[in-house]
Design goal:
GO terms for molecular function: dioxygenase activity; iron ion binding; L-ascorbic acid binding; oxidoreductase activity, acting on paired donors, with incorporation or reduction of molecular oxygen. By secondary structure, the chain is of the alpha+beta class. The chain has five helices and 16 strands. The chain is globular.
Length: about 250
Amino acid sequence: DGVTEVLAHHSDNLRDKFVEIPCSEDYDSHKRFEGCTPRKCGRGVTDAVITKEEAERIRRIAERGLSLGGSDGGASILDLHSGALSLGKHFVNLYRYFGDKIQDIFTEEDFALYRDVRQRIQQRIAQVFGISSSALYLTKPTFFSRMNSTGAKTTHDEYWHPHVDKVTYGSFDYTSLLYLSDYSKDFGGGRFVFMDADSNKTVEPRAGRVSFFTSGSENLHRVEKVQWGTRFAITISFSCDPEHGIGDPLLP
């Protein structure tokens, strides 16, 4: 697949790495929000916003939630905002399906950590792109993913296709991924690949690493198939449009 450059090795400890790239025209077909809609586009990686210990605590939240369900295929989703949880070949609403049992699974501290981490990622994105943090709105879907080498059973399991977030989800303006496990130690394959005209740029996940980027076609991307082990991450996305904003999840 052409020349591949590694943007971030799993062994690197990156304070701040940012590559600016020209913005695509995707934003022009949506309402623009001055001082927020991307005019400076690019992609960044940092290992300095979330600690490895925090990433491990967040991974345990994902593991506990996903232990209630899980896909028959290789990709399982847990969305604490909407309650969507993979179960077999379908999704259920975790909060309705399990009711009061949820309080045995999650704690207020879990949700407080989730909120704190989300705020720090939001602040870093705002800082790098030169916008006000208060201009960004958390948007859906924001979710945990667990990927392994099990074959796909439905199209939801086919996570490896190239896609553009702004095209897939019109509300996205800035996308971030917080990795919760380590490439080459916890899983093989599963690298994140930016697909540029001249070459592919890959990000090798490590627990606590945040990868973030503007959501338009300038950042066409895919995830490699996981070959072995289990890869955990959380996708946290932001919109400039307050109408697409969602609140932080609350323990029922």
